[in-house]
Amino acid sequence: MNIKPQSINPAVTHRVQQVGFIKVAALAGLFTTGVIAFAYNPDSTEYKPPVTIPAITPSTYEVQTLKLDSDHSGTAVIKLDDYILKVGFDFDKYPADYGVHGSEYIEVEVYNLAIDDVKPIYGAEFNDFTVDADHRAINSLIAGYIMRNRLVEAI
Predict the structure, then answer these.
(1) 67 contacts 89 by C-beta, under 8 angstroms
(2) CA gap 142, 91 in Å, rounded
(3) 124-154 pLDDT tens trace
């Protein structure tokens, strides 16, 4: 009983099988693409730098009083946020200009800042809590105050 099955039209049978294979392959490809697209999360591959929190918050500085004791030193009372700082400082002065005739002025550079006393507005004493950023800002504030009010020209 070696009988080969004979189809009526082999071309039609072969074509039906090929179309069925293409349908199954296309369906499997679509399914695979859908699974990959669903599983892929572009946000997880995107680099996000860590959020940095500043070590200090910006402070406000204000000169309450300033007195030049000599040609190169002085004392001042500075308001730093809600605190009063009594400071002593040394400064250098030297002539400068903007490169145009008539624009001469005296430049002041504050150095050797010493914070003598720290008190809140309400009274009790504190230890010195200032950081280097505070010292740089206070130096600039004092130098600007001296130049703006032309205090070194009066000495």
Answers:
(1) no
(2) 10
(3) 888 888 888 899 999 999 999 999 998 988 6
Which amino acid is it at 47?
Answer: Y
Map out the domains of the chain as residue ranges: 10-45, 61-154
Distance between CA atoms of 155 and 152, rounded to whole angstroms?
A: 5
**Residue 53 CB coordination number (10 Å):** 5
**Residue 56 near residue 135 (C-beta atoms within 8 A):** no
CA of 95: how far to CAs of 72, 105, 141, in Å?
A: 15, 6, 19
Contact predicate 69/76, CB 8 Å: no
pLDDT tens digit sequence for 31-70:
999 888 887 766 666 677 778 777 667 789 999 999 999 9
CA 42 vs. chain centroid, Å, equals 27
Q: Residues with Cβ < 8 Å from 106, sequence gap 6 or more? A: 93, 94, 95, 96, 147, 150, 152, 153
Query: How far is the C-alpha of 71 from the C-alpha of 77, rounded, in Å?
Result: 19
